[in-house]
């Protein structure tokens, strides 16, 4: 097959920069083991990704959604709100505040003596020396 160029794909994805992002994302998917939809023909992953986009074996919109999903760090989940009756059945705010105060009083911290700390430090294994530092 002839060499795939950006001009072969630009009618599928309007923006050249978006095309590069999508092809790069698809090439990373292929390198991670995703199934390819066109014959490889001894091409590298970026060329295979561009050929898949040019042949329309993959939808650019699906690739874009997958790229966005892969870049998201925090996904908000819409949880249903409680009914008015369920809120009325719950205990009052004053009782909840006193329970929070009781919980704060029950907090304990691990205390360590100086001798325990020194014994723990002495038990550590020193790092191996290397030429890096």
Automatic annotation (TrEMBL):
InterPro entries per UniProt: DNA-dir_RNA_pol_omega, Pol_omega/Rpo6/RPB6, RPB6/omega-like_sf
Gene3D superfamilies: 3.90.940.10
Organism superkingdom: Bacteria
Chemical reaction(s) catalysed: RNA(n) + a ribonucleoside 5'-triphosphate = RNA(n+1) + diphosphate
Any GO CC annotation of this UniProt entry: DNA-directed RNA polymerase complex
Gene Ontology molecular function: DNA-directed RNA polymerase activity
Keywords: DNA-directed RNA polymerase, Nucleotidyltransferase, Transcription, Transferase
UniProt enzyme class: transferase
Residue ranges, annotated region (Disordered): 79-102
Pfam families: RNA_pol_Rpb6
Record-listed E.C. numbers: 2.7.7.6
Subunit structure as annotated in this protein's UniProt entry: The RNAP catalytic core consists of 2 alpha, 1 beta, 1 beta' and 1 omega subunit. When a sigma factor is associated with the core the holoenzyme is formed, which can initiate transcription.
Family recorded in the similarity comment: Belongs to the RNA polymerase subunit omega family.
NCBIfam families the UniProt entry points to: rpoZ (TIGR00690)
Job description of the protein: Promotes RNA polymerase assembly. Latches the N- and C-terminal regions of the beta' subunit thereby facilitating its interaction with the beta and alpha subunits.
Protein name as catalogued: DNA-directed RNA polymerase subunit omega
Source organism: Mesorhizobium qingshengii
Name of the coding gene: rpoZ
């Amino acid at each position: 097959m002839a060499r795939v160029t950006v001009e072969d794909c630009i009618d599928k994805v309007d923006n050249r920069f978006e095309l590069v992002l999508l092809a790069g994302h698809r090439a990373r998917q292929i390198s991670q083991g995703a199934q390819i939809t066109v014959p490889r023909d001894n091409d590298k992953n970026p060329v295979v990704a561009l050929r898949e986009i040019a042949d329309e074996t993959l939808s650019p919109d699906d690739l874009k959604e997958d790229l966005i999903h892969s870049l998201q760090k925090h996904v908000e989940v819409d949880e249903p709100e409680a009914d008015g009756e369920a809120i009325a059945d719950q205990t009052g705010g004053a009782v909840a505040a006193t329970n929070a105060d009781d919980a704060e009083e029950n907090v304990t911290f691990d205390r360590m003596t100086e001798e325990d700390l020194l014994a723990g430090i002495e038990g550590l294994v020193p790092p191996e020396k290397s030429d890096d530092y």
